[in-house]
Structures are given as C-alpha cells and as structure tokens.
Write a structure and sequence with these properties.
mainly alpha; 5 helices; flat
Length: 107
Amino acid sequence: MRVVLRLLGLWFLGAALILLVIDGTRSLAASALVITELAGTIDHLMPDVLETVQGFVSTNVHPLLWDPAMTTLLSWPGWLVLGALGALLLFVGRKRSDGSFSRESGY
C-alpha cells in the first residue's frame, strides 16, 4: 500500500511541476504573473467534467460540499493543489523508522 501511495505522490508532484512550468512560461511570455486556476486546467483538459461533478456532488452528497469547499479548492493554482496532494501522499506512504537513534542508523 505504501508503494502505491508513494507512486501516486510522485505522479502528483510531477504533474504539479509541469503546471508550474506552464505558468512560468506564460508569465515570462506575458511579462506579468500568470496563475492558472485548477478549474481552468481541468476545464481545458476535460471540458464537461466540472459540470458533471458539480451535479453529482450537489444532488448525491451535499450542496454545501460543492459551493464553499470545492469551489474554493478549484480557485487555487493547479500546481499548488497537486503539489500539496502529492506531498501529503508521499508523507503518508513514507517508510517509518523505529524512532531510535542508533549507531547503525547513521546518527
């Protein structure tokens, strides 16, 4: 299970790096700071997904989950959301030490 979490974390960090490079390139070309929201990235890659997810969450889960929670998350930069998710997955999937500082562990 830890291997899967680490692999997913690396994939999310890789995607975050790609989105950061895209925003950086757009910022250099425009000579101004350009930050692409996660909703804009999802809408560019998969045009009808956000409307479908909004309808599903509003009707089957709870309307408050979509309006304040998901809309806030979707308004953040895509590289920030994917990077934070990737870091969280890598943290959860890390190898845990026994907590001792012995000579064999290098400390």
